[in-house]
Every structure is written in C-alpha cells, then in structure tokens.
C-alpha cells in the first residue's frame, strides 16, 4: 500500500466523525427553525427596548447603535433567506412535469 493513500485513509477516518449529523430531539428542522425565530424575535425586541430607553434618556447612544445594527443584520438575514426560498420555489414551478 502506498504511504500517501494510507495517510489519506487515516485523515479521512479522523475527520469523518466531525461531519456526522447531530440528532435533534424535536425531529429534523423543527427545533432549529423555532430557535431561529425566537432568537430573531429577541434581537428585534431588544433593539426596540434599547431604542425606547434611549428616547427616555436611560441608554447611551453606543448601546442604541449596537442594538439597531444587530436588528438590521437580523432582518437582512431573514430577508435573504426568504428570497432564496422564493427563488427555489420559482425554480420548482419552472420545472417541466
């Protein structure tokens, strides 16, 4: 057996456990989307609360800018994912039957 192929086989067997799927309790995909939705809601809610506190004079401007940037990034991410889903759906509709 060639030394290079032996090294490749050892490297492959060492990295194989790193790419195995992690079992989920709620079924595939269910808990992941629920967690993402909760995190999105918490991020936006935190931004709103920080904005209200800043308007009342209870929060510093740096915290306001940081919270608004996080909210903006979260919304942009959701919009990008939604656009990809719509694009995939349109591709499916264009497929010949």
TrEMBL record:
> Which keywords annotate this record?
Bacterial flagellum, Cell projection, Cilium, Flagellum
> What is the residue range of the signal peptide feature?
none
Q: Where in the cell is it found?
A: Bacterial flagellum basal body
Highest taxon of source = Bacteria
Checking Pfam families in the record gives: FliE
Q: Which InterPro entries match?
A: FliE
UniProt record similarity statement:
Belongs to the FliE family.
* NCBIfam families the record matches: PRK00790.1-5
What this protein is called in its record is Flagellar hook-basal body complex protein FliE
Natural source organism: Thalassococcus lentus
